[in-house]
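Hi all, long-time lurker, first post. I run a small reading group and we've been trying to get comfortable going from sequence to structure in the token notation. Rather than ask abstract questions, I figured I'd post a concrete chain and ask someone more experienced to write out its structure so we can walk through it together at our next meeting. Sequence below, copied exactly:
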Amino acid sequence: MDRVTAFFNETLRPHFEAEERWVYPVAATYLSDGAAMVAALVEEHQQMRAQVHDLDTDPTSALEQRLPAFGTLLESHVRTEERVLFEAMQREMDTPAWDELGARLARLPPRGPSCRIHSARR
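-- Answer (accepted) --
Happy to help. Here is the structure in token form:
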């Protein structure tokens, strides 16, 4: 469990914090259904935080259910961000707002997989 907790603390937690501070507020502002989408994604972050806390607190019980449940939620969450949220942001945001978000994210300290967007748009 130490590896799961370390991965969460070193990689996922800063990633979630960057999304919640920078990406999600922009999405909620610019996307037609952004507020609802962001609320669901933040709820998933909270669920994953709780799951990791539970794993850290009780690292032995029912791991054959708990670890796959965490992995499934994380995978679904990432897919929703990539295939729904980010696609909608590219479609609905104007270029200056998109570029400003990208510049803010680029200034964040690098830690593991990052929140980065490219200024080249489809």
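A couple of things your group might point at:
The chain has one domain: 2-106.
Residues 2-106 form one domain.
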